């Protein structure tokens, strides 16, 4: 076994272990830290594939921004872990069935020649002055254009769903009407009050 293969299997084993701990550990803070470990090992795998740009983006964006924000939210909120895990065993068969269905659909899509996902030949060694970012952009916007647009659409739907789920209109909330503010007149804002002058004693 070559040293490169040994490093690959090491990163892959740690990645699978960290991903398993993310979904099995009870403490959400520890789960987030295991997710950070999984991101670092995924970045190591990207480095082995000579995709340095993706590895750096994975560490900077997900570990440096998303996970810090996630840890901040988890540690600031008072989460009742026991209440969250009450229905775990009850919904476990349904969740397992959905996971198997999603895995089968991904295998069908990625295994077929649809969406321009043909078999890509083994990449040759890159030159020293080769631009990783340019090669990634060329692949995304030519060979993988349709899957890239589908992923963007899925993310847009997720953003809209998150906004809809968190947008709650409360009766006791006070807000301003911009249209009414624009149509306001001077007589509605300023009121002149005549008061008698004070008499000096």
From TrEMBL:
It holds the Pfam family Oxidored_q3. It catalyses: a quinone + NADH + 5 H(+)(in) = a quinol + NAD(+) + 4 H(+)(out). InterPro entries: NADH_UbQ/plastoQ_OxRdtase_su6, Nuo/plastoQ_OxRdtase_6_NuoJ. Keywords: Cell membrane, Membrane, NAD, Quinone, Transmembrane, Transmembrane helix, Ubiquinone. One of its GO terms (cellular component) is plasma membrane. Its main location: membrane. It comes from the Bacteria. The chain crosses the membrane at residues 6-25, 32-49, 55-79, 91-111, 144-167. One of its GO terms (molecular function) is quinone binding. Its EC number is 7.1.1.-. It is a multi-pass membrane protein. It is found in: Cell membrane. It is an enzyme of class 7 (translocase). Belongs to the complex I subunit 6 family. NDH-1 shuttles electrons from NADH, via FMN and iron-sulfur (Fe-S) centers, to quinones in the respiratory chain. Couples the redox reaction to proton translocation (for every two electrons transferred, four hydrogen ions are translocated across the cytoplasmic membrane), and thus conserves the redox energy in a proton gradient. This is NADH-quinone oxidoreductase subunit J.
């Amino acid at each position: 076994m070559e040293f490169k293969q040994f490093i690959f299997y090491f990163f892959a084993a740690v990645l699978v272990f960290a991903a398993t701990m993310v979904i099995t550990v009870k403490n959400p803070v520890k789960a987030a830290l295991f997710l950070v470990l999984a991101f670092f090992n995924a970045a190591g795998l990207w480095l082995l594939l000579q995709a340095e740009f993706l590895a750096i983006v994975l560490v900077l964006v997900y570990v440096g921004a998303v996970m810090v924000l996630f840890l901040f939210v988890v540690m600031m909120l008072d989460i009742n872990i026991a209440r969250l895990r009450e229905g775990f065993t009850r919904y476990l068969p349904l969740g397992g069935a959905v996971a198997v269905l999603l895995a089968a659909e991904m295998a069908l899509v990625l295994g077929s020649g649809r969406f321009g996902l043909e078999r890509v030949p083994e990449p040759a060694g890159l030159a020293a002055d080769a631009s990783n970012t340019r090669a990634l952009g060329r692949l995304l916007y030519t060979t993988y254009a349709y899957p890239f647009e589908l992923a963007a659409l899925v993310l847009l739907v997720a953003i809209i769903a998150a906004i809809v789920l968190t947008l709650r209109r409360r009766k006791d909330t006070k807000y301003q009407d911009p249209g009414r503010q624009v149509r306001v007149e001077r007589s509605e804002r300023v009121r002149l009050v005549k008061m008698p002058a004070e008499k000096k004693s």
